[in-house]
Amino acid sequence: MNLPGKLLQRNGWRAILVLILGSFACLNVLAQTWPQAQSLPEAPPPQPVAIRQIPAGLLRDQEVIWTSPARIRGQDFGYLVPLGLLVTVAITTDHQAMSQVVTHNTSFNNENVSASNGLLGAFVAAPVVLYGVGHLTNNDHASETGILGGEAMVDSLVVDEAMKVIFMRERPTVDGARGKFFQTSVGADGSFPSTHTMIAWSSAAVLAEEYPSRLNTFAIYGVATGVSLTRVLGQQHFPSDVLVGSAFGWMIGHYVYKKHHRWHLDFDR
Fold first, then answer.
1. Does this model's pTM top 0.70?
2. Would you say residue 6 has pLDDT above 50?
3. Is residue 255 classed as helix, strand or coil in its secondary structure?
4. pLDDT (0 to 100) of residue 1
5. For residues 189 and 269, what is the distance between their CA atoms, to the nearest angstrom?
6. Predicted pLDDT at 266
7. Residue 38, Cβ density class (10 Å: 0-12 exposed, 13-18 middle, ≥19 buried)
8. Cα–Cα distances in Å, from 259 out to 239, 251, 256, 262?
């Protein structure tokens, strides 16, 4: 048995929790190295974001997302290499984690699935509520947050579904949690990446950027981490599924904010 597998057998829950939580903690490092606004395509002069801009924005976002590998630069390896190593370790230990560490107790699994659905619902509802409040009260900040949060989630969903079809990975409940890739029988219901985590983290990234504070950041990303953990504890996804879903979702949300953010204090004065 390889070393990661031995560590999982020996340390059980501690090993998998350290792996998953450590992976999410690395997103704070990504925040420091992720390309800033000046490295993104030229933006028009600042003006309030409007909901009518979403269709065109989504098309531009998808173009940038799918062509981004062609624009990788040397400084990008500062986050790509650690992320790649974490994903490699996670995939290596996926089978042991889901077959030997995470319980198969049906009641426990179902409770975690319900929890993940509820937490995801909060991230989906937040942009909708903020847009509604902003529209009714003429609050450009709240309206922008709602619009960009929705755009980020749609972008993430498109990328997620495409990746599922490309990788066609079996879920943990299939074939003894071997997590084999490129299985045509999987169809569009693949395990890699996790849809819940990608959507949750894309919404979380926008919310945390729009309302930056230590408390907000801790609370928002804490709930997003809860979505990721409960998908694993519910036997719905492997640790690598939620790691990739979380990282990609965060990156997409961060990009949408940096590219389309227009609001500043002068709008509400």
1. yes
2. no
3. helix
4. 47
5. 48
6. 46
7. exposed
8. 30, 12, 5, 9
- Identify the residue whose tokens are 């290499």: 81
Average model confidence (pLDDT) across the chain: 83
3-state secondary structure of 164: helix
Q: Which long-range contacts (CB under 8 A, 24 or more apart) does 17-21 make?
A: 19/86, 19/89, 19/90, 19/93, 19/97, 19/239, 20/228, 20/229, 20/232, 20/239, 20/242, 20/243, 21/225
Task: State the average pLDDT over residues 89-95.
Answer: 93
- Rg of the chain's alpha carbons, rounded to an integer? 19
Q: Tell me what percent of the residues of the chain surpass a pLDDT of 90.
A: 62
**Cβ-proximal residues to 22 (8 Å cutoff; 6+ apart), any chain:** 86
Q: For 15, how many CA atoms within 13 A lie in the half-sphere containing its CB?
A: 20
